[in-house]
């Protein structure tokens, strides 16, 4: 959380300012005001210009977000001036970008300096070589210009270049026609004599002219194109725009082509996509100096950003379409192949216990009803879940797995339901597992370990068949079959208050318990032969013969790790046996069932207490003193574990775990 942080240094002020700005984005204005008060209280009486600039930025963002336009704009100007005086160009650029973002979202945005902030941010990011943020600033500038009519201070005669090109992009998909029409608009509306659009060649990466508007006579066309390439190469090398307002007086700009063509004014801007140059837009004029201003260059940068995105989409559309058709075909073929593999008849389970399970699986597969799989680890719950999916009507849909016990609590909700872009700085939007499984099956493994807070959201998603991504937004309808699995006794978890009863009944529509391997030992020989053949194929050797002694050794073990342990054992023996016959190895024998030795003459209560004390001690050792994890491993509550620690005089473990936690 953001509460309870004490500001005691410049770094503390910066951190509190960042947390306050995050609260502003979440529209938690009281929390942001608290952070601001902490910052200003520490700054008072101190000369700390960097910290003061960040605090002023927080105050400006808070006021702008609250609609206090005049105050917010005034403090925004002070913050930018403070960063400029330090100097701190990166902080200044990011601050200008944030002010513009808030202004775009504000109802009073038209009265704010959004356009100037975006121009400043784009220029600073250009000088810093930060092409990613420069693209973000240009994209916001395009959005701003789409909303506001382009005034005479931006474009000659009030002509809306961005607005016109935006409509053009919506109506045209042909790359050639799009480029020609767009360059015609750019040349006409910026009153240029000539314009050239250059794109990167797919093979060589060189920038080559593809569209020319205006133009010169044939005798000088080659030199004109030559100079165009020279100007763009200069832009590509610098990573920024080029504006030459009086070419004859610019020694670096002068060349034979400039002299032959009599060029006076030149403006050239790069076209960036994902931080790489995909082309350039070039305009020139031989009639007058100062034909293009800084405002024209900024407008042309917004135009170039629109064109870069459109051209990249147009270039890749046909290729993506072909690749998509190929992938769809391959995907369907692979799913059919996988579906054949995950059929009940291919499941190794001839024992009576597994035959009863498979009979229920075959009936459940023909429905979309929720199934709850229970059983020990390693019994094959995920395998059964895949059979349920691939044997049913949803077999051509996706089978998506989520391990509810392996994902941190803070990330589980976004993993399940997705997250909207820009919820926090640098966060990219993505779909959750529910959306990915739409039309298919969502397998919730280890659902018994899901925190209570997330259980509420899961229950709502299952009941309403819709999810809401983290960050808000409209609900999204989903059609998903739920298959849940747990190695815990969920009924007991409900009684302990660790699992919601209503969610338990939602999941426990068709209960299916997978028996442990010790209760279906008749399956061991077939499983061992399957694993031996599988690993033989991996090791490029013939499938070995399993001796009677080897099979007897397998049948004698209770396999506490179930099928997974048997698989690992067969792989280990094959790795240690070079021949074509497998026999049990002394150093690799499967674990035998053992019985704890009981001391004669001791009372039952003493023996039980001793056994309980040892089990708790071993669990704490394995969990490095973490009582929460130890309680989870022992299948009890943390409160119950602490009671037993006090009962057996083991309270010191609690103190040591706290020390260890604090050190982390």
Briefly, what is this?
With 664 residues, the protein is of the alpha/beta class. It contains 26 helices and 14 strands.
Describe this structure as you would to a colleague:
The protein is an alpha/beta fold. Helices cover 55% and strands 10% of the residues. The protein contains 26 helices and 14 strands. It has helices at 10-25, 29-43, 49-65, 69-85, 89-105, 114-128, 131-147, 161-171, 175-189, 218-238, 256-261, 294-341, 352-365, 381-390, 409-417, 433-436, 452-464, 490-495, 501-507, 524-538, 548-556, 562-576, 604-622, 627-634, 638-647, 652-663, and strands at residues 194-200, 207-213, 242-244, 265-273, 276-285, 371-374, 399-403, 441-445, 466-467, 476-477, 481-486, 510-513, 545-546, 581-582. The strands form 4 sheets. A 5-stranded antiparallel beta sheet has the order 2-1-5-4-3, with helices on both faces. A 5-stranded parallel beta sheet has the order 7-8-11-6-12. A two-stranded antiparallel sheet has the order 9-10. α6 packs antiparallel against α7 (131-147) and α8 runs parallel beside α12 (294-341). Mean pLDDT is 80; it is low at 1-5, 149-159 and 653-664.
